[in-house]
């Protein structure tokens, strides 16, 4: 029996889910953990998630295997529940899973649309140009990209932030592969740490917030532990970076009309989502969808006033005899909100669907109840949450956090914050542990690698352990 329990614990990343199964469902669901359907479902999802982990090697998008696995698992569940005459239980579980996914999908879709709009208005290009044009040395650039990653990721999410900062490093560093590798590691750590103390910084924090375990303001105690998680490894790694001056070419970037106002609308959208959740106790996705209307109306304003704006700029360019400005005016196209929606990370959004539905089925079969018994009943919750962070480094942190939320253990506020912290920053231990790390391996292909990151794992582990200690020491009253 002990061997089977340890096997289930090792399979935790493969039986994670984003569903928060209701008590009514769990009370009526039948335990299929020792059945052929249960074993087959576990095997199917384990194979699918192995293909996800090999995405960079196989060049197979991660959504494909989990979408197929989701269909196969629910076919088996549907057939077995139909055979025993209780198909309504399976149908209720399926609908519950779909509702939870719909909230996450729409929330992320709005956030991604705003980020895409900022990118189209050249905000990120302007930031990149500013950093490149300042002529910083390698060590200054190392700290600047890390600190900016830490403070931008709570708003723009860790993946977008990491890609932006990586573009700066690649543009400045040139062929200096050693600096690119260590700078990318620094960016991954900073982006993940910065995302840990904000509901908007990572998918895992967003899920904890939407589930109602931690309110928006209650994430603030994680700020200092997150800082410690970033600063300790950054201080050590900075000692190995030369103060040499890189070759850089300054490029002037002109922001497109409305760029700064879109940032303001995004902040207003976040405030609206927080208000819906904190004041009305509605899902925050309602506020995000209302925020999409802000962007749509502003897009309508930009389109209607575009001819007048072009005429004004044309007159100014002719008066100044600015041929370059006249040429740029010829390439201006109207702002299109729906084009920004189409540029969302659809592979990621569909991957979430596959994980939700695959493992929602495994939860209905009874596996999450067994794992919850092992980790949160037999173990001390603190050590269980530390293990969650380590598992997040091996697999992606998202399914691991899904598992914890599905188990819904009785945890204190301090422990909910601890698991939020460990799931967020634990992914920095390995390059494959977070979306930021996986993305940068593709963006800096051959320069930032799995083994290049692994070499610094002991240093990153110091930051991981220190951030946990800081949380236990500073926020002990919350446990």
Automatic annotation (TrEMBL):
The keyword Transport applies. Its main location: membrane. GO terms for molecular function: antiporter activity. InterPro entries: Cit_transptr-like_dom, NhaD-like. One of its GO terms (biological process) is sodium ion transport. The chain crosses the membrane at residues 37-54, 66-81, 219-241, 262-279, 285-302, 349-370, 382-405, 417-444, 456-474. Residues 49-424 form the Citrate transporter-like domain. It is found in: Membrane. It comes from the Bacteria. Residues 1-21 form the signal peptide. The keyword Membrane applies. It holds the Pfam family CitMHS. One of its GO terms (cellular component) is membrane. It is a multi-pass membrane protein. Keywords: Antiport, Ion transport, Membrane, Signal, Sodium, Sodium transport, Transmembrane, Transmembrane helix, Transport. Belongs to the NhaD Na(+)/H(+) (TC 2.A.62) antiporter family. PANTHER family: SODIUM/PROTON ANTIPORTER 1-RELATED, SODIUM_PROTON ANTIPORTER 1-RELATED. This is Sodium:proton antiporter NhaD. The gene is nhaD.
């Amino acid at each position: 029996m002990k061997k089977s329990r340890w096997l289930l614990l090792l399979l935790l990343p493969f039986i994670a889910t984003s569903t928060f199964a209701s008590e009514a469902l769990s009370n009526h669901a039948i335990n299929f953990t020792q059945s052929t359907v249960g074993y087959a479902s576990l095997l199917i999802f384990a194979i699918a998630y192995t293909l996800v982990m090999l995405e960079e090697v196989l060049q197979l998008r991660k959504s494909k295997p989990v979408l197929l696995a989701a269909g196969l698992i629910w076919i088996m569940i549907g057939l077995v529940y139909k055979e025993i005459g209780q198909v309504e239980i399976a149908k209720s579980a399926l609908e519950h899973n779909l509702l939870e996914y719909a909230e996450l999908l729409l929330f992320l879709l709005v956030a991604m649309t705003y980020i895409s709009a900022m990118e189209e208005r050249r905000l990120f290009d302007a930031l990149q140009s500013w950093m490149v044009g300042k002529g910083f040395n390698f060590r200054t650039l190392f700290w600047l990209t890390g600190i900016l990653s830490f403070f931008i990721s709570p708003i723009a999410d860790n993946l977008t932030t990491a890609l932006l900062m990586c573009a700066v490093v690649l543009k400045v560093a040139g062929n200096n592969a050693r600096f690119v590798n260590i700078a990318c590691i620094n960016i991954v750590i900073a982006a993940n740490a910065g995302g840990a103390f904000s509901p908007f910084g990572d998918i895992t924090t967003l899920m904890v917030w939407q589930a109602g375990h931690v309110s928006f303001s209650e994430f603030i105690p994680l700020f200092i532990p997150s800082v410690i998680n970033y600063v300790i490894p950054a201080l050590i790694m900075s000692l190995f970076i030369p103060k040499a001056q890189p070759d850089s070419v300054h490029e002037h970037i002109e922001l497109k009309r409305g760029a700064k106002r879109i940032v303001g609308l995004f902040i207003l959208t976040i405030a609206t989502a927080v208000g819906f959740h904190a004041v009305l106790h509605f899902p925050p996705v309602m506020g995000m969808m209302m925020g999409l209307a802000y962007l749509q109306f502003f897009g309508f304003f930009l389109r209607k006033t575009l001819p007048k704006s072009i005429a004004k700029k044309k007159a100014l360019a002719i008066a100044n005899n600015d041929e370059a400005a006249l040429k740029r005016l010829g390439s201006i196209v109207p702002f299109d909100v729906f084009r920004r929606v189409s540029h969302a990370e659809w592979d990621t959004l569909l991957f979430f669907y596959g994980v939700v539905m695959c493992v929602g089925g495994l939860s209905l079969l009874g596996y999450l109840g067994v794992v919850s018994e092992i980790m949160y009943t037999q173990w001390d919750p603190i050590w269980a949450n530390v293990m969650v962070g380590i598992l997040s480094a091996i697999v992606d942190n998202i399914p691991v956090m899904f598992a914890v939320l599905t188990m819904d253990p009785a945890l204190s506020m301090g422990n909910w914050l601890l698991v939020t912290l460990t799931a967020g920053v634990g992914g920095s231990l390995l390059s494959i542990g977070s979306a930021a790390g996986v993305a940068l391996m593709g963006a800096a292909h051959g320069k930032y690698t799995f083994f290049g990151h692994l070499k610094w794992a002991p240093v990153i582990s110091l930051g991981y352990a220190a951030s946990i200690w800081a949380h236990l020491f500073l926020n002990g009253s919350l446990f």
